[in-house]
Amino acid sequence: MKDYDQIVHRVLRRATTSFLVVITFISMIGAQDVTLKSKQIDEPLPLSEQAKTIPISNNQITLKITLDGGQSVLATQYEGGMIRLEMEGGEIFGLTPYKRGLGDAVVNLKIFRIIRIKKGGKVVGEGITELETSVIGNQPSRTLSSLANNEPRFSVQLVGIKEYSKIKEIGLRPQYEAAGTCCVTCDGMKTCACSVETTCGSCCIGVCCN
Q: Greater confidence, 135 or 1?
């Protein structure tokens, strides 16, 4: 009788252990599902729906952007188009370069803050606010001096300008609109432009690859 009780005890113990393993596995699956759903809710807008400025010419302006931490990126965008910087801490900035008259020694650079608009936990749009306009030449220039001390700082340097024919027809958009932009993430910063070069990799779209 004693042996019979021991056998029954072992069977019950194994069954209980198996039941706990199954419950644990189901709980893990449930947790993974919640995580995936959370990520889907927080996904940013597609590139086509993100805040942007519209190019005014086919001129390509290349800038070197260097964060205070030392990481840098070369970004090329059409004149009037936006270079988008997404920082690891969540801050998003837009940089829009414009030529200053004749020559290619300096450009005007409008700098914007971009804020994601959420509704019900989902990103439904973006707001954009101009922070400053800086004159950028072939020497690094500090920007965003008016921001709080804990916000990111970076310097910008003009690398070069490729000049093309001006857009004359009203409503006509350069190849930027059809080609879109490409993005590279490196050292905690995601950069989107017509062409992006970083130490982690590079990308380009359309004629910006030439």
A: 135
